[in-house]
Design brief:
single chain, Growth Hormone, Chain: A, mainly alpha
Length: about 425
Amino acid sequence: MSELPGPDAGLRRARAAVGACFFVNAVLYANLVPRVPEVKAALDLSNAALGAALAALPLGSLLAGLTSAALIRRFGSARLASSGLVLLSVAVAAVAVAPGWPVLAAVLLVAGALDAVVDVAQNAHGLRVQRRYGRSILNAFHGVWSLGAVAGGLLGSAAAGAGLALGLHLGGSAVVFSVVALLAHRWMLRGRDQDDGVHDDGVHDDGVQDDGVRPEPGPGARPAPAGRPRMPRSAVTALAALGLLAACGVFVEDAGSSWSTLYLRTELSAPPAVAGLGYVALAVAMTVGRLTGDRVVDRFGQRRVVRTGGALAALGLGAALAFPSVPLTLVGFALAGLGVATLIPAVFQAADDIPGLPHGLGLALSNWLLRLGLLVSPLLVGLLADAAGLRTALLVVVLAGLGALVLGRTLRGRAAA
């Protein structure tokens, strides 16, 4: 059997460029997080005021997320990702010069909007590169994002520890990472994103001609209704299922980032140095799972990997909640992170490949639904924790793992050799 030719140098450079975009996207905000207490003190904000300002981030992402597909068709995913990162770096740096709460909230609103657009654009371009590779590489991009988040947190912590002025720190970071984003653009794929879905005869996979006009119906065919074309019902159903699947992944991730430290500290009386390890266990396991997930997906298929991962997350955290102890809880969060490592990349790929939708549209819609889940998850768990206790509230995460086990059936199985 003859082997498929490997990627050429240009395609490898494009892969490295997309990885650089994912890394920069994660670094920029993570670089700010360790210095949020200084921003709060400098502007003399209450906890409620700071929380309201930080809530502008997901609000901005929800407001702008649905524009991503149209912007990709207008400017291209490569230009949108690289230029969006430059603007995002400026927005994050502007936090240092905000004179008060209104400007801070406005800057974070813009940053959230830019982050949503960049996220869709870099994933869209990563999927373009993946299609040309002919095998899964998207999980590795998300693994690089996780590494960028860790690097950004360390960079911000180091700057805070050294007493570096906030403006100098964020301004210098904006310059450095903007240069990286602009250099990455030079290596990204050329051409229009729409051309990836066009056959040699000029007709898209969904039957739409390259000029956006549907071909003339044959004799006896019912004429298409006038006006804007509607999204096929099958596409709506697929997006709904993928949105719920993405929400399952978000609930598991949010349990680690928002609630693991509090659960270990208050429910299990873990010391402060140990309580923070719940999130570390989940994040490290997720990063490892993403960096190694492409080979596993190529071998077993998205469906089996996501369903097995959902069962692993439910079993790990279910056992930790049933038999509460610090060691078992750390293992449970690690298993949860490993279990959902490939879930979000799988949802993005499946949404971008929905028949009847141009590349970028399904991706943008699934990304928006994911961000809606990010907004709902902490609120729901918090309300349940107040009503029944945090240990009971975290059963939502077990249900999310079981949801991934069930909804993972909608994903693609192993590709034929």
